[in-house]
Amino acid sequence: MRLLMLWVAMVICAGCTKKPIEVQVMTFNIRYINMGDQGARAWVNRRDAVADLMQAQPLDFIGLQEAFRPMIDHIHERMPGYGEIGVGRENGKEKGEYAAILYKQEAWEVLEHGTFWLSDTPEVVASSTWGNKVTRICTWGLFQHKHSSRKLYVYNAHFDHESQMARENGAALVLQRIRKQDRSIPVIFTGDLNAAPENPAIQQITAHESALRDVWGVVHGAAPPGDAGTVHGFSGRRDGARIDYIFATPELTPRSAMVHYDQRDGNYPSDHFPVSTRLVMP
Hints:
- This protein has 282 residues and is α+β, with helices and mostly antiparallel strands.
- It has helices spanning 2-17, 43-55, 69-78, 164-180, 200-205, 215-220; strands spanning 21-29, 61-65, 82-85, 101-104, 108-117, 137-145, 151-158, 187-192, 213-214, 244-248, 253-259, 275-281.
- Helices cover 24% and strands 27% of the residues.
């Protein structure tokens, strides 16, 4: 009888272990506080719309770009229940843009995290060596699902908008860091990479040996620009460049991928459309 009870318990436990987890992810360039943005484009007039858009779905992780400390604080005020990892790129503390990762605290806990600079000296704060005038960073975290103990790496970056060398070397550095981690743990990589899918920086991320897949491409294939553009300069045009991405390793099966075109009376939360996906973690 004791052996029978033990066998039943093992069967039940095995069934629980195999239950898949849905992970919902968004990447969102929220447009930095720019004194030239007036009226509806000013951050104080956009921040509620930014938070409302993110709260409209049960997101597990949000990769933010162009996020400054006051902006992140505003988001936290409107979105309780989300933790944060990341630092400001100018001093490794709170100065300058963050490539912050927000995560749902109810479901995930942080085991490890860090930020490195996209340069030849990635541990040197504010370093920039690849022809980019603007400092660029990548934030990463190792997360554990509280209810199943399964682990997941999440990376988030903002590549340079001018230097192709910086984009390609930045992609190579991020991939190098990912390959050094535990290869048995799935990886998600989000970001505004300032490069279209045919750009060599993106091509090396999705090359076979990198084991990262462009989630949008997996779900939609080679969608025409009119269905996939993510940068629009507050115009709302949908045929702009697709430069905002979510990548995932093959263990994570994408069930959906969408660009969010939310607006209020013709006013948009940002000059980028956010992108989200629903992934199944086996």
